[in-house]
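Title: Comparing notes on inverse folding

I've been comparing how different people in this forum approach sequence design from structure. To keep things fair, I'm posting one structure and asking everyone to reply with a full sequence. Here's the target:
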């Protein structure tokens, strides 16, 4: 009865996929609290700059990233080889 085993495996896989549907999803909306918004901006900005650097190193790619804050401050990364 190998078919029964495969059926159970398929059902387990479907259940695993169903459980993951809601996990890890964050609703994207403006952060109303100014301090929280600034903290999030700083953390995400640093993460983006790090990812841009990693992409340039790992993939030997030319990468440029330009970020303007809501105050008009410029943050930039450019790989140079």
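Reply #1:
Here's my take.
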């Amino acid at each position: 009865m190998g078919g029964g085993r495969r059926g159970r495996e398929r059902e387990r896989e479907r259940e695993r996929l169903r459980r993951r549907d809601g996990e890890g999803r964050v609703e994207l909306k403006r952060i109303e609290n100014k301090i929280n918004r600034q903290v999030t901006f700083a953390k995400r900005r640093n993460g983006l700059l790090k990812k841009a650097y990693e992409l340039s190193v790992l993939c030997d790619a030319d990468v440029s990233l330009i970020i303007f804050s809501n105050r008009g401050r410029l943050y930039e990364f450019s790989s140079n080889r």
